[in-house]
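tokens incoming
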């Protein structure tokens, strides 16, 4: 490839989007095989969500992984704005808008947390559990604040443990899944000793924190900021818990926007739409691979094994002596069995619409209440009539909520994939739209 061709400013044999556990593992294998690797990540440092830097200091596994990279460059603070024709990406970073040409593209874009609307969720002091965890890891002061952690799924345990370690008074951990579902899940841990140990460690870190099992958040209340949270349990009983902050979350959602803009097939996996891949991590688009949580939420270890598989598949395409490692495939199968058990134990609540009041804002960027949305025929009509999903987050929260609650087809993604400066917008040509996603 010629770097001066048609305005292409960067090129690499392998371009990896996302430098979390998945992207780093793929980069290690591909660069060790002598391939030219370029990694891009929107975050200021490599590591992704689980190995996020603490107050600017890289997590130990990240430092080790970066030290092992041979022929790899990392552009941090650099986001892919969109996919362009001819195996090219438009990126946006400290050097402004640039184009990157790839021969093999690896999508390792991870997941984001699912935060659902409920009365009072826009009050100051209400956070996504993972978002608050990230803020606190970045140095945001939480010491001595009383925090209720609530919602559903194992991420709540990790978030609560981080908050407690940083000095928060975690006044409770409210899990929606009932005792029977939790007991079934606990039994499934017997087949997964690594996860059992992790759960035991998190449990030990949370000793003394009240476990409020089978209770769901129905409202956050307070005068100008959250002061208490109302929970509802079996038979409609309610209880109110005083707190300075609520950290809430209902699992994770794969980030598939870039894959969609490339035309990759998407299907439900582990309870949410994810990029479809084969055993070598190939997507439905030639030359494009996907690894980690964008292919289904299954944890950091699964992300790592998928990264290894993709790295070997790409290296094997130029050197027939390289084969897919059977060990990585076996371990991935085990991680996926666990991910399926998590998805069964902590599903998206089916009764969400009952928690919304007429004036509950479903789209908090554009202040669109539930009453303006529930009579709409589909997402497109809802967007046109109310501006829902046209704000800063581009529908990442409200469109998922509505697609899930109302069983509406999801909308095609549009460039740019995230808010971008004008110079980046000007570099985007007319772009064909994508297939609609399954609900
Ligand atoms: C908020 C949050 C908190 C979490 N906390 C924990 C925890 O405490 N413990 C735990 O075990 N698991 C946690 N998880 C789950 C954990 O993220 C995964 O298991 C693991 O990090 C997945 O690795 P990955 O490489 O697939 O994705 P990630 O680690 O998420 O990495 C994906 C990377 O892709 C980058 N990216 C995405 N889109 C673009 C784009 N368009 N352009 C450029 N870069 C892009 C992101 O900046 C990110 O760094 C958390 C997840 C979330 C969403």
């Amino acid at each position: 490839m010629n770097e001066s061709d048609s305005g292409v400013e960067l090129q690499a044999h392998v371009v990896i989007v996302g430098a979390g556990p998945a992207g780093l593992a793929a980069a290690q294998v591909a660069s060790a095989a002598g391939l030219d690797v370029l990694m891009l990540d929107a975050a200021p440092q490599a590591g992704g969500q689980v190995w996020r830097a603490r107050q600017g200091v890289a997590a130990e596994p990240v430092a080790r992984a970066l030290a092992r990279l041979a022929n790899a460059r990392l552009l941090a603070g650099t986001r892919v704005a969109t996919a362009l024709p001819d195996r090219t990406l438009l990126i946006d970073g400290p050097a402004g808008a640039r184009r990157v040409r790839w021969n093999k593209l690896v999508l390792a874009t991870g997941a984001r947390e699912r935060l659902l609307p409920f009365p009072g969720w826009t009050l100051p002091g209400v956070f996504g559990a993972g978002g608050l965890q990230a803020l606190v890891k970045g140095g945001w002061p939480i010491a001595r604040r009383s925090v209720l952690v609530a919602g559903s799924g194992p991420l709540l345990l990790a978030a609560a443990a981080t908050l407690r370690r940083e000095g928060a008074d975690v006044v409770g951990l409210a899990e929606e899944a009932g005792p029977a579902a939790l007991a079934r899940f606990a039994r499934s841990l017997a087949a997964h000793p690594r996860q059992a140990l992790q759960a035991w460690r998190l449990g030990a870190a949370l000793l003394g924190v009240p476990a409020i099992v089978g209770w769901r958040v129905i409202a956050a209340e307070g005068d100008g900021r959250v002061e208490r949270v109302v929970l509802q349990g079996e038979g409609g009983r309610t209880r109110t818990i005083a707190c300075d902050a609520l950290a809430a979350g209902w699992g994770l959602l794969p980030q598939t926007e870039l894959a969609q803009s490339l035309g990759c097939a998407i299907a439900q996996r582990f309870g949410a739409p994810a990029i479809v891949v084969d055993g070598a991590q190939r997507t439905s688009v030639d030359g494009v691979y996907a690894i980690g949580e964008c292919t289904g939420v299954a944890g950091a270890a699964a992300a790592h094994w998928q990264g290894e598989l993709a790295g070997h598949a790409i290296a094997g395409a130029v050197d027939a002596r390289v084969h897919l490692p059977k060990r990585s495939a076996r371990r991935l199968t085990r991680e996926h069995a666990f991910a399926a058990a998590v998805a069964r134990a902590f599903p998206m609540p089916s009764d969400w619409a009952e928690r919304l009041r007429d004036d509950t804002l479903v789209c908090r960027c554009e202040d669109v209440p539930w009453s303006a949305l529930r009579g709409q025929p589909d997402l497109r009509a809802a967007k046109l009539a109310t501006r829902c999903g046209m704000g800063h987050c581009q529908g990442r929260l409200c469109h998922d909520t509505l697609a899930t609650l109302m069983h509406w087809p999801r909308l095609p993604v549009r460039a740019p994939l995230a808010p971008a400066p004008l110079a980046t917008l000007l570099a985007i040509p007319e772009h064909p739209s994508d297939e609609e996603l399954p609900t």
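note: DSSP finds 14 helices and 21 strands in the chain.
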